[in-house]
Amino acid sequence: MAVQALDAATLPIDWQRLALPAVLIVVGYGLIPAYASSYLVEAILLPFLALSLAAVGLNLLTGYCGQLSLGSSAFMAVGAFAAYNFNLRIGGLPLPATMILAGISAAGIGVVFGLPSLRLRGFYLAVSTLAAQFFVQWALTKFGWFSNYNPSGVISAPHLTVAGFSLDGATGRYLLSVTTVIVLTGLVSRLVNSATGRNFIAVRDNETAARVIGVPVLRTKLLAFAISSFIIGVAGVLWAFTYLRTVEPAGFNLDRSFQILFIIIIGGLASIRGAFLGAAFIVVFPLVLSRLGAFLFGGLFDSGALDMSQRIVLGALIIIFLIAEPNGLSALFDRLKRRIGSRSS
Amino acid sequence: MTFFSHLRKAAIATAFVLGATAVHADEQYFPLQSYRVGPYAAGGTGFFGGFIDYLNLINIRDGGVNGVKLTWSEGETQYEVEKGVEVYERLKSNPGIAAWNPLSVGIAYAMIDRITDDKVPLITINHGRTDTTDGRVFPYVFPLLLNPYSETSGIVNYIASKEGGLDKLKGKKIVVLYHGSPYGKETIPIYELLSQKYGFELSQIEVPHPGNEQQAQWLTIRREHPDYVVLRGWGVMNPVALKTAQKTGFPADHIVGNVWSNSEEDVIPAGDAAKGYTAITTQASGEQYPVVQEIVKTVYGAGKGNLEDKSRIGSVYHNLGIVNGILNVEAVRIAQAKFGNRTLTGDEVRWGFEHLKLDPARVEALGAKDLFHSINVSWDNHEGDGYVTFQQWDGKKWNVVSDWIAPDWKLLRPIIEKSSEAYAKEKGIKIRTAEDADAVVSN
After folding, report:
1. Residue A26: burial class (beta carbons within 10 Å; 0-12, 13-18, 19+)
2. Do B109 and A156 touch (CB under 8 A)?
3. Using the 8-state DSSP alphabet, how is residue B94 labeled?
4. Which of B118, B299, B389, B403 has its CA 20 to 30 A from that of A175?
């Protein structure tokens, strides 16, 4: 009797906690590989997953720890080029090890460019992370070794195999991507709820107060840079190896850094879900608009005029969204859920 | 009429159009990853305008290629790799794809693996990855007419002809001013090689992207006092280079532009400073060529012309688009002669490109005499030995100032093979033989 009561009391909580991951796993590993078209995987899901992961990484640094960074795409580039070189130069290195080494390389560069954060804050820090952006791009173009002396400096992705299975097909690359994203996001969500995560938030909210209560501010900031760059570096590997399958330094320009920053602002700062919602918005929405525009007005205007008007619509929508909910899509989502919840009960 | 009734009409019209496409069996489709907005729109509108104009000419004048109608649709890429990939994924499911023509090095690189899996040709006319010239390693990629190495060799041969022969290059001084990007750097080793071979002094100077400030570079050039400057620019870098050259007193007629520094859009913004500037091209500009005249009469006459600004008809990029149209259509025609007058598979069109031989007589029959010289593609040479010519800007238009010049293909081939074989090794690709090239997938 007592056991039954206990079960009844704990079951609903467990269900709620397990429902979302369960649905995600069924969709992510069951439905999508089985039914999704190659367009959905190659043009939408792969960039979405890579950018989501990069946004999770940046959100850790900017959203949780309060350090504004404009160097994200440089760290992605470091990850991508490091993975390429590890793969090329160390024969027989398994892919997961390559990815981890690439992440560690990005983390190293991240710590170096995170050093100014010890003295600089806010916009000043953003400007100094900008240096990472320019330096990395310059170094990758300047030194031919990074691209194995390919005359044009563009590298192409190697074959992807894990434990003897080839992952070169669209589905294989998707599974690699989704698994990486799930594992790393899982780790990040554990981290932000740990003592370290609370240290991040303490540093963000008030550095002096954090120092007073004994948070090692210096170490915390550098740790945030390291972990965030690690994740962004792995996202760079996904971007290069699973999505584009080719990399050139110019592909990781300042625009990409801004794009990732916009993703976390639109999605919601200091929210893991926000990174995914924001990435979905940035990746999927322009495509929907473009398809809709081409469908409705394709014959009337040339594709250039259509593209221009989509940008206007997209810009206007971003402004409207942010006025309606300054805390981003994640907060909007919560509000929606609460309203539905209150109506049904 | 309400908005919704308009919408319904549009939907019905779309359904009708889609239905109509499905009914026609014999169509050959060209997916176009065009760019009409963004920083490189001038090139995109001209090139894709010319390409579409030529496809329209074939449809209106001849009713298609041997009765097979040519169709196409566009997706905007803004010259960005991700957008190019998205458009590729969107358009690749259309039936009867003949070939892809992205006109972007970055997008082409990202597509090499994909189109090789699909077995559909990828055309990178006048640009692209140099070692894709080697058809043994890259069966589906065609840098038609001119790859970057041939361009370099053509420019050096032209300078030699101005000086009175290759032996006269000895002791001359050439400065290469290149764009600080993968594209700009691609030819560094080949200039080095030619400088050693012919004994001219060489100095290569980088202009950081985008190149709107070049005072320092041109002061260096003035100090070095070269006989010629080769401009390997892109976009805004070109007019700025010409203007700065004028300011530092370097004569424009000793500056030679490469194939991406050769358009009206590169010289007009420089104004007077561009007068006398010479640049390489594979296709002459102007609208006096019969095929361009027919496009004006048949396509623009019927109100179906693609260029909004009619003064751009016959411009460098427009004519490049027309030449690209000719090469694509003729490849389809050649493949049809072997496989039948029907919708061909991508692999059949690949076979067509690998037998794309247009001698000067055939080029004249196509109405393109003097527009471009000839092409001779084979299963292992995907460039096809294109000839180049040089045009000089007189302040209003380009004038051809040289004969058709042949690059030194023999010298370049071993370097290309070395690079492509290294790529094959890195990617584990089996090197193709002539028999492999004749095995064609027909369904």
Report:
1. exposed
2. yes
3. S
4. B118
Q: List all residues 6 or more positions away from B368 whose beta carbon is below 8 Å from its beta carbon.
A: B289, B290, B291, B322, B323, B326
3 state SS of B105 = helix
A142 in contact with B at a CB cutoff of 8 Å? no
Q: Measured between CB atoms, which of A157, A251, A296 is closest to B81? A: A251
- Asked whether the beta carbons of residue B93 and residue A244 sit closer than 8 angstroms, the reply is no
**Do the chains contact at B34 and A303, CB–CB below 8 Å?**
yes
| Inter-chain touch A88–B426, beta carbons under 8 Å | yes
| CATH (domain of B357) | 3.40.50.2300
- B15 part of contact set with chain A, CB < 8 Å: no
**Tokens (6 digits) for B227:** 């006989």
Task: Looking at the complex, report in whole angstroms how far the Cα of residue B232 sits from the nearest Cα belonging to chain A.
Answer: 14
B74:A159 CB<8 A = no
Say which residue the tokens 């980088």 belong to. B206
B258: which residues sit within 8 A by CB, 6+ positions away? B151, B155, B230, B231, B232, B233, B279, B280
B7 touches chain A (CB under 8 A): yes
Is A152 within 8 Å of B188 when comparing Cβ atoms? no
pTM, rounded to two decimals: 0.85
User: Residue B82 and residue A88: Cβ atoms within 8 Å?
Assistant: no
A141 contact B CB<8A: yes
Backbone angles phi, psi at B429, to 5 degrees: -95, 135
Residues B300 and B432 occupy one common structural domain: yes
Range of B309's domain?
25-146+285-376+417-438
Q: Report yes or no: B4 at the A interface, CB cutoff 8 Å.
A: no
Cβ pair A38:B106 closer than 8 A: no
Indicate if B290 and B348 belong to the same structural domain. yes
Tell me, which fold does domain A36-344 have in CATH?
ABC transporter involved in vitamin B12 uptake, BtuC (1.10.3470)
Question: Does B182 sit behind a cis peptide bond, omega within 30 degrees of 0 on the bond before it?
Answer: no
Domain count, chain B: 2
| B218 closest CA partner among B257, B180, B177, B187 | B177
Residue B69 falls inside a structural domain: yes
**B90 close contact with A: CB closer than 8 A:** yes
User: For residue B379, which of B411, B406, B356, B346 has the smallest C-alpha distance?
Assistant: B356
CA distance B243 to chain A (A): 27
> Does residue B419 sit at the A interface (CB-CB below 8 Å)?
yes
